[in-house]
Design a protein that fits this description.
Helix content: over 70%
Radius of gyration: 21 Å
Shape: flat
Strand content: under 5%
Mean pLDDT: 78
Order of helices and strands: HHHHH
Largest sheet: none
Number of helices: 5
Number of strands: 0
Structural class: mainly alpha
């Protein structure tokens, strides 16, 4: 995941027309759905391009973490057909298994697509576009990882314990994922923005 994406974009720290042009684009990203416009300036004294470079580096770290997790899940799924009990799977279990493999492959493709985007857009001085689209890729990847986690747990419990247990466990995992990945972060975000806006 390091590749050339870790290198600063040509002209990233230059002023002039490019710097002014990127400021508006940066506002679309930094002042977009992920931050509050009123708290956009956090006192770092960064230019728009420096902020975009930092955002890109932070996104790469997030992608590396997700890539490690999905590699473990994908490796586990790919070894299942070679297990002795795989022949015991009924049609529903086989269908779910194949869907999980497809989702894992899709997640891997999504994670790697951010690097491909960087390679295609490198040198065009459109870092704001790269950061914006990578943020969308990360959100989609996180959602799919939650589905794979719940589906994998369902498959294991369904095979070992029973279908009812599998459904209960999968539903519980989806609920926990929803609380930890959606409800809690947005509640924390709302509180942080409110505290920063308070006099």
């Amino acid at each position: 995941m390091s590749t050339a994406a870790d290198q600063p974009e040509p002209g990233a720290d230059r002023g002039g027309a490019h710097g002014r042009g990127s400021a508006g684009a940066a506002g679309d990203v930094v002042g977009g759905p992920d931050t509050d416009p009123a708290t956009d300036d956090d006192g770092r004294g960064e230019s728009s391009n420096q902020r975009l470079d930092r955002n890109w580096q932070e996104m790469l770290q997030e992608l590396r973490v997700m890539q490690t997790g999905i590699q473990i899940l994908t490796g586990f799924l790919l070894t299942l057909p070679f297990q002795s009990r795989f022949d015991e799977l009924d049609d529903t279990q086989v269908l779910v298994y194949l869907c999980l493999v497809c989702l894992s492959a899709l997640i891997t493709a999504l994670v790697l697509s951010s690097v491909n985007l960087h390679r295609v857009l490198f040198g065009l001085r459109v870092k704001a576009t790269l950061v914006q689209h990578t943020a969308v890729i990360i959100r989609a990847t996180i959602a799919l990882v939650g589905l794979v986690l719940a589906g994998t747990a369902w498959l294991i419990f369904d095979l070992v314990v029973g279908r009812t247990a599998g459904l209960v466990v999968a539903g519980s995992i989806l609920l926990v994922v929803l609380l930890l990945w959606v409800v809690y972060p947005f509640a924390l975000r709302r509180r942080a923005v409110r505290n920063r806006a308070a006099p």
